[in-house]
Structure formats: structure tokens, C-alpha cells
Amino acid sequence: MKANTKSGKLTGLSERSSDMVLVVLCSIFLFLVAYPLYYILIASVSNPYDVYAGKTFLLPSQFTLEGYKAVFADISILTGLLNSLKYTIIGTIFSVVVLYLAAYPLSVKNLPGRKWISIFFIITMYFGGGMVPTYLVVKQTGLINNIWALFLPGGVSVGNMIIVRNFFENNIPGEMVEAADMDGASKWITFIKIVVPLSRSIMAVMVVFSMVAYWNDWFTAMIYLPSPDRAPLPLVLRNILIKSSASASQASTISGGFAELNRMTEMIKFSSIIIAAAPMLAVYPFVQKYFEKGFMAGAVKG
């Protein structure tokens, strides 16, 4: 009994030690990931000269909101914010719907031509026409300066589609689908009433992926949406930063003007990063509980 008790104590000590090691490692990893964003946050409300002098390691120095005031002073910010919200909502719905419509049929093992259709999708992951051919296709289809140019050319991420297909294969009970067929349910009814409700966790993952992609996408809008009133928020912030940088460069010929404009440029840079990242950081906690479960369930099992 003593040996067993001693053995039990050693086992308990080993478990506690391993938990402590994991906590320490996770804390270090959390610090490495979270601190850069925290640093940008405190830098956005600090004097840039103090930032460069290393005085903002943990707390802001000479607290100021001048950078945020300068960014929001541009009336295009509100327009860009509304555009980004619209593009993100429409693009996310479109991408998730298309992902489901592509992934579910490919998860059916008796689908005719399933292997060749999957190969066709996979080929697009490795080979593409490039930016110029894609632009010409978009132009010929009349989508220049049309918001659908943001969604149609890259509406389906093949990598995400494979994850969703694997989720359907591994987590949707075939017996339920067969029972629905025997009860006379159509393929659409089975898909909407059974498949979609049972796949909310992977849907949350795809929603997060799509939201982040569309919210941060400024390059596609810069190419296909030349109208300034259709620019999304990241593109608007980029233009504001470029204008402020250009003004600082031109002020080099003015006595005493360069230092102040350069200071404002740096403040705008930090503030723009926080403004662009804040909406996604606010949304993520609400879907985080589904994120890990859905992503691991959609991974390849073997």
C-alpha cells in the first residue's frame, strides 16, 4: 500500500509538473503573440519620439489621441468603414454558401466523377493564370468598378473547401442521410435540415476565415474598384498614410515643418493599424468556442 501511495504521489507530482510547464510555455507564447499588438496600441496613443526612445515598453508615454483625430478627420473613413462592412458581409455569405455547395457533393462517396472533380479543384491550388489574365477576364465580363469583382474571381478557397469536405465525411452520420432519403426527403431538404445544422462548428471557422480575408483585402479593391467612394477601409487608411508620408517629405524644404509632420505621420501609422484590426478582434471572441472544435474536426483523419 505504501508503494502504491508513493507511486500515486509521484504520478500526481509528475502531472502537476507537466501542467506547470504547459502553463509557462503557453504564457510565453501568449506574450510573444499578444505583445506586438499591445505595443502598437500603446504606441498609437504615445508621442512617437518616446516610442523610438524606448519609453513605451509597457505603458503609454505622453498620452495623446492626435493620431486617431487625424485619421477620423478624413471624411472618407466613414465611407470606407461602411464599404468594408458591406463587402465583408456579402463576401462572407457568398464564400460560405459556395464552399458548402462545393464541399458537400464531394463528400458523397458514390458521386459520379468525384475523383476527377476533386483533382480539378486541387489543380487550381498550384496553377493560375496570374494577375494580368485575371484582370482581363474581369474586365471582359464587365466587373470593373463592380463590387462582385471582389467575390467572383476568388469566391472559393480550395483549401477551405477540402477542410469542409473532410468535416462532412467524418462528422455527418451516413445513417441520418439514408434515413432522410428513405423518408422521402429531397437532397436539398437533407442538406438544409440535416447537414447544415450539424456543421455549425466548421461553418464558424469558415466565417472567421472569410471575414478576416475580406476585411483585410485592399489590393483587390485597388485593382478593380477605381472609384474612391467604393474603397474599403484598409485601402482608405493606406491612402491616408501615403498622403501624410508625402506631405512629410515635401515639408523637408520648410523650416521646422518636417519634424512635426513626420511625428503626425508616425501617429497616423500606429492608429491606422489599430482601427483596421479592432473590428476583427471584437468579433473573434464570440466565435472562438467553435473555432478549435470545427477546425480540428475538419482536419484529415487517418
From TrEMBL:
InterPro entries: MetI-like (IPR000515), MetI-like_sf (IPR035906). PROSITE patterns: ABC_TM1. Residues 81-292 form the ABC transmembrane type-1 domain. Gene3D superfamilies: MetI-like. Its main location: membrane. GO terms for cellular component: plasma membrane. The chain crosses the membrane at residues 21-42, 85-104, 116-136, 148-168, 188-215, 267-287. It comes from the Bacteria. GO terms for biological process: transmembrane transport. The keyword Acetylation does not apply. Keywords: Cell membrane, Membrane, Transmembrane, Transmembrane helix, Transport. It is a multi-pass membrane protein. Coiled coil: none annotated. It is found in: Cell membrane. Belongs to the binding-protein-dependent transport system permease family. This is Lactose transport system permease protein LacG. The lineage of its organism: Bacteria, Bacillati, Bacillota, Clostridia, Lachnospirales.
